[in-house]
Design brief:
The protein has about 110 residues and is an all-alpha fold. It has a domain of about 45 residues. It is built from three helices and no strands. Helix 1 packs antiparallel against helix 2 and helix 1 runs parallel beside helix 3. The longest helix has about 35 residues.
Length: about 110
């Protein structure tokens, strides 16, 4: 349970921080002067939030894959039949990075 929380909490904090920065960024960008083409100038906070989202989620995913990979290799050294059951968990941990990328993509597009 403690390890799950170690993986879930950084991902949620990353998403919350990124969304809060994106909300303040769009509010600041909306008040900017309108360019000649009619486009609203974008705030740099939007890009900072996207970078923060990807960065923190990739660090958390790397920590998770390192711990899960070490445990999986240790288990497979004792019982080689566990290879098919242990390695998919490393793929689940890599999903943390994917969610961080998706949050960053939504911040930049919306």
């Amino acid at each position: 349970m403690k390890r799950k929380m170690l993986l879930i909490v950084p991902a949620l904090l990353c998403a919350a921080a990124a969304l809060s920065f994106a909300q303040t960024g769009t509010a600041e960008g909306a008040g900017a002067a309108v360019a000649a083409a009619g486009a609203v100038a974008q705030s740099p906070w939007k890009y900072f939030a996207a970078a923060l989202s990807v960065g923190i989620s990739c660090i958390a995913g790397g920590i998770a894959v390192g711990q899960i990979g070490a445990a999986a290799m240790g288990a497979m050294s004792e019982n080689p039949e566990l290879a098919g059951k242990a390695l998919p968990y490393a793929g689940l941990a890599e999903g943390i990075c994917l969610w961080g990328f998706l949050v960053a993509l939504f911040i930049l597009l919306i």
